[in-house]
Structures are given as C-alpha cells and as structure tokens.
Amino acid sequence: MIQDIPEKLNNNFLIKPSEDGSVVLIFRGSELMTGRDEKGRGLWLPKAEELTETGRACFDADNAYVFSIGSAEYFMYLGDEDIEAPAGFAYEEVRGIRQTENKDICFAAATGWHLRQWYRDNRFCGRCGQPMGRDTDERAMRCRKCGNVVYPKIAPAVIVGVTNGDKILLTKYADRVYKRYALIAGFTEIGETAEETVAREVMEETGVRVKNIRYYKSQPWGTDQDLLMGFFADLDGDEKITMDESELSTAEWVGRDDVPEKDDGISLTREMMRVFREGKEK
C-alpha cells in the first residue's frame, strides 16, 4: 500500500533550516509542483536548489521542515504567493499522483497535502478568532492570545469488504471522478466504535446487514486527512440491495473470479479486493 515503502517515513517534529538539497513540497491550490518522465509514469519533486531565484526567495521566506523519508528531508512552502515552476517542472493535481510508479513520492505528496490543508485551515483560532502561530515544541498551531492548541486533523474512517460466500459487495461512487469499483466506506461518527461504523455505513448505503465484523488492516490516506481502518464482514440475512443513490451509482454482488485483478499497490481498497479474489480474507 501507499505507506509500504523501503525507507519509512520519519515524522518526528523538528525545527531546522532547508538546504540546497532539501526536497520541497510546493502546493498551488490542490496542485503540487512535480517533474515527470517522458511516459508520465515516473515522478519526482524539486529540490530547493532547482527553484528559480524568485521562487527560492519566496520559499526561503516561509517554509517548514515536515518529515524525512530515508535520507531525503522534505520541507513545505507555507506562503501565500504562487511560486513559478522552474524548467522541467509543472503543477498537477495531488489526487492524480497516485498513478505514479514512485510509491515513496506518492506517499510524500499525500502526507504533505494532509499537512498543507491543516496549516491552511488553522491560521485563526476557532475559539477567539485571533491569529494562530506554529508551536516551537511540537507539531501544533497555538493561539497567540488564548493559548488554544490545535493538532493535525486525522479523521477515522472505515472501508468494508462485505462477503456473501464467494461473492463480495462492490460499489461505485455517485458524482465522483473516480469511476472504478470500490468498497463501502465512511467516516466514524461521534460516540461510535469502528465496528459500529461498519454496520451503519453498510446499512445506510446498501440496506444490507452484516455480522462477524473483523479487522483487517489500516492505512493513512492523506489526501482526505483520514486514517482508514479496513474490515471484512459477512452478510447477515437477506442479500437484497437497497442502494443509496445519493452516495452510489452501483452496488452489486460480484463473484470471486470476477473481482477486478489489478492491485495498484497504493490503496487499501485494491488490496482488500485482491485478498478476497485470492480467497485469503478469512
């Protein structure tokens, strides 16, 4: 999956200056500055030394160290002024980066985007409305007036493989760019356990009841600021589907041999579908 990379993420909080060889995460709206090979599959991120003179000045004026992957240290631009992409680089949508062959860059981009949204959305205190500042002891934003502390948002969510013997419940989202098969998913509500979220989301979206809910694996999903918890569950009773058309365009039972084979190596969804196809979900 996206986090399964040879060199693991080191997200210890540090305050340190960037250097010429530092990898830089520069966002413009929902786009990230990247470089691509001729086939568009390989991907890399710029280093500070590769920015234009004007771009480097903007970057140096407002950036923060965010994490490292192996020996590569990543710094994020937090200023408001757009930085022009130097020769060989361009801006592309963060959500499109998951198709790259470079899983470490994909993970860095998603995790960086998670942090960028948090920094962007917490410039002012939700308690008193005054400006927030970056804390110097931990990864947090602290109100300069009332002392309110805000940590990065991590939203718990579930993804569910509902099985019915040799069939699994596959869905497609309504009104989304992503049109491939997916599994039922949703966010945990206040006062719920993850298992209660599983049962509720399946019922709300498909009208199906489940039993024997069992945890499979988790995954950070930075593009939506989630921590995804994967579960398998068995059908409990009637297999008739009553689809929530505001959420889904398709919901159907699919036989084990007909589950799409492709595992992109990135998402928990695709891995769980492959695991079911191979009969390894129990």
- Shape estimate: globular
Corresponding CATH architecture of the largest domain: Alpha-Beta Complex
Largest sheet: 6 strands, mixed
CATH class of the largest domain: Alpha Beta
What does this structure look like?
There is one protein chain. With 282 residues, the chain is α+β, with helices and mostly antiparallel strands. The chain has two domains: 9-121, Alpha-Beta Complex (Nucleoside Triphosphate Pyrophosphohydrolase), CATH 3.90.79; 155-277, Nucleoside Triphosphate Pyrophosphohydrolase. It is 18% helix and 32% strand. It is built from four helices and 17 strands. The chain has helices at 53-61, 103-121, 194-206, 268-277; strands spanning 9-10, 23-25, 27-28, 31-36, 43-44, 63-69, 72-77, 90-93, 132-134, 141-143, 149-150, 155-164, 167-173, 184-187, 210-221, 226-235, 248-255. It starts with 8 loop residues before the first strand and ends in a 5-residue tail after the last helix. The model has no long low-confidence stretch (mean pLDDT 94).
